[in-house]
Amino acid sequence: MSTRIRESRGQEMVLTAAVAIVIVLLSLLPMLRLIKEIVAPGGTLSTVAIKAGLGSPATWIATWHTLVVGIGGTLLAVLSGTLVAVLVTLTDIRARSAMVLCYVMPLMIAPQVTALAWLQLFGPASPFLKLFGAAPPLGTRNPLYSTSGIILLLGVQYGPLVFLLVRAGLRKLPRELVEAARAGGAGWFTVLITIVLPLMTPSIMAAAALAFVSCVGNFGIPAFLGIPANYLVLPTLIYQRLSGGGPAVLGETAFLSVLIGIIAMAGILAQEIMSRRRDYRISSTSLSAEPYELGRWRPAVQAGMWLLIVVVLFLPLFGLVLTSLVPGYGIALTAKTATLDNYRFVLFEHDAASRAFFNSFWLSIAAAVFAVLVAVPIGYLIAWGKQRWVRLLNLSVELPYALPGVVLAIASLLLFLRPIPLTGIQLYNTVWIILYAYLARFLVLALRPTISGYHQIDRALEEAAQVAGAGLFTRMRTIIFPLVAPAAIAGGLLIFMTALSELTVSALLWSSGSETIGVVMFSFEQGGDSNYAAAMSVITVAVTFVLMLVTNLLAPYLPTGVLPWRD
Amino acid sequence: MARLSLDNVTKSFANFDAVKDVSIDVGDGEFLAVLGPSGCGKTTLLRLVAGFEKVTSGEIRIGSEVVSGKGGSVAPEKRRVGIVFQNYALWPHMTVAENIGYSLKVAKLDKAVARRKVEDALALVNLQGLGERRPANLSGGQRQRVALARCLVAAPSLVLFDEPLANLDVHLRASMEDEFASFHKRTGTTIVYITHDQAEAMALADRIAVMDGGRLAQLATPRELYHEPANEMVASFISQGILLPADVLSAEERGHCKVRVLGAELIVRCRPGERPRTGAKVCCRSADLDVSQDGPGFDGLVKRVIYQGGSARIEFTPSTSPDLTLHFERPDPVALESGAQARLRIRSGWLIPAAGGAS
Ligand SMILES: Nc1ncnc2c1ncn2[C@@H]1O[C@H](COP(=O)(O)OP(=O)(O)OP(=O)(O)O)[C@@H](O)[C@H]1O
Ligand SMILES: [Mg+2]
């Protein structure tokens, strides 16, 4: 190789190598470590861990529960999400963007906050019901502490996820396919049933798979609703084992977490197989169909939509705010009793709570900044790189996010239980292990928008700089980063919002001194201090909401679809 | 079979008029082609007739029924029109037979009857035996035939085509053209056929509506359109007519009058009632141009000679008005070369009626 050729390739090789190292560290290493624990605990091949896991009845019960709430939640999410998507996309309903914003909002709220909010709405202590004197007597069981309660909230939480995917599919539906059917004499409803929905099955199935993975891996909702009823699913079973037994039971929980991973993957696989049989690729590009005129039904449909939004978003949040203003459990809220003491307490007086705010903020900021900086070069290789293995790259970054958070948490524990070889650095029981897990899990949230940002940029811009003599690193700094920055930064903000009140990962990784907001909220709720938990929730929801508004400022510079709540 | 009439139909998007003040009467069983440059509102016109768009003002009648107008609009599924799209618009999740039988199923027709009708429709478009295929496994021509069969199976009173051949290659186009023509002859269905291919329109249509910027420029038979364009747009759009400034010297007499074009006097065809005027335009076709060694005519420069196989296209600029370009064809062997001086004669032409003269 001539030196000039070597020079030309040098920077690209450095970049590729750096990216490869980051990905190996963050995504392949933990997964491999987890698998090793299952097949070869202690270094030798054995089936002991698997046998122990399979032999325990608790495993089977939790697996059964996981499947029940997973499938139930998915069905509910698919039904509601699809219905809303059809109404919002194909009819002449008014105030569409506001509707989309409100309907998608629950997706931006952490599951345990959703759970807490709903619990406050229906429980015997509910300040909301007390406003009308409709609260059940104290000591009555909250109806949400049940299987159907969990399914309902999973449906509420992930309906918007289905909505987003189905809506994207509906928007690509060429209007001629609809019009040909109408010219053939079919009314709107017939067209919907015989043409639109069948054509949407690939989108709907993909959405169902995603919702299933999310439901199965969800920790916050079954933790808040299931643990009090002693209804355990796999993630909560892992949590209980681990908090009871400590590192000694790590092998057993590793098995359980792989089990969740397998269930999640089975969902995705089933979707793959089914959609391969139904390949309705829509090839032509065209305008989308004229919205259907609801006519005299429009007020009713609109009222129904807003009622749904009030029920799934405003009422729970309202209940949450009320609870956060009540001085203690079961006290009715009046102008006299209302107080901000709960907020003062969690922000300034309670050590763990104020520490948690500090921890969660800097963890989220660190994860977001790191992800933005790393997403730009990785996105470059994936979007514009010529190598074929970059698809693999994309897949391995997606993996830690596609798999339930519990899986990654257990993998991180296994990886860092002992000090890191050679250096002797101990991550276990520190806040750093949480940071590691956040980096691994959320990287893809910044990567996806960055890649779609790359696809929107004319590559000639970079090539012009190249012709002008700029090396890869110079181009990256002066041309590429400024161009994809809005998309990457929007991704970073999404990470911040997600990580801020995250619970699944930190519930398994926290230690005294490294509490996160989610963890403290959870322990308040478990200890019966719902008022404090509510106050913390309100703060995080408010921060999230403000950040959404800030992120909106970036919207004009972003590819469509990066900000889920924007229409 | 039904008449279709459009009365002063206007369609505005926001404040842009995609179709403006169009009035067309399509007779029962007539084949009307709509021709025009891209973006002139052809598709919009068709969608208005089908009912996918609402008229802003004006009225559309199919048969004797007002389907769009002030009183509201009949839903597309109630209009009994068939429509064939440029991109076929076959439903990918149904087989060919299911695609064709869709409207019968929607009408809850007896299954056996429906099956026979589908078979007949398949036979009509020469696709026997392909009923179980998926549209994805068909060629472009076959797909378009399925689309045709799908719209015919319900025996609509009016069939609308939106550039049905635009996605097909030249050879297929010719054979599909034949098929459309024979279908029209056999069934006598009223047809509105949109195209931007003049040859296609001329070959198929009884009458052609030329549209320009949302307006109807001229509605006439192919022959009339070619020989007697109503305005400059139609003259230059159809077969690349050459427009030349002219002064009318004599009043019309038995369909002809005397004009002066580029300094030479000649007799051209014209509308009845033409009188002497200045600033008129004459349209002539390249076949009307002749190279004359000497004699009447005008001199100019051969700008370019483009060989086209068997003949050459020659671009010529008269010396008296250097910004005009005339073009005509000469058979092989071509004596003229670019840069040469030549003398041209116009054998005949058509005097474009003064603006405001209705078509
Ligand atoms: N839904 C719409 N909203 C706004 N403008 C529209 C809409 N549909 C069509 N137009 C505009 O109306 C004009 C006419 O469009 P139309 O599709 O009828 O043209 P066309 O003659 O069919 O062109 P082509 O030959 O390219 O298909 C165009 O300028 C187009 O941009
Ligand atoms: Mg068109």
Structural overview:
- The complex is a heterodimer of chains A (567) and B (359).
- By secondary structure, chain A is mainly alpha-helical.
- Chain A has two domains: 1-46 and 343-567, Orthogonal Bundle (MetI-like fold); 56-339, MetI-like fold, CATH 1.10.3720.
- Chain A has helices at 3-39, 48-55, 57-90, 96-108, 111-122, 127-131, 147-171, 175-183, 188-217, 220-225, 234-245, 250-277, 298-325, 341-349, 351-384, 390-402, 405-416, 432-456, 460-467, 472-500, 504-509, 517-526, 530-552.
- Chain A is globular, with a radius of gyration of 25 Å.
- The termini of chain A are far apart.
- The mean pLDDT of chain A is 86.
- The mean pLDDT of chain B is 89.
- In chain B, a hairpin with a 3-residue loop joins strand 17 and strand 18 (311-318).
- With 359 residues, chain B is α+β, with helices and mostly antiparallel strands.
- Chain B has eight helices and 21 strands.
- In chain B, the strands form four sheets. Chain B has a six-stranded mixed beta sheet, sandwiched between helices. In chain B, strands 2-1-4-5-6 form a five-stranded antiparallel beta sheet, covered by helices on one side. Chain B has a five-stranded antiparallel beta sheet with strand order 14-13-12-15-21.
- Helix content of chain B is 23%, strand content 36%.
- The complex binds adenosine-5'-triphosphate and magnesium ion (MG).
- Magnesium ion (MG) binds at residues 42-43 of chain B.
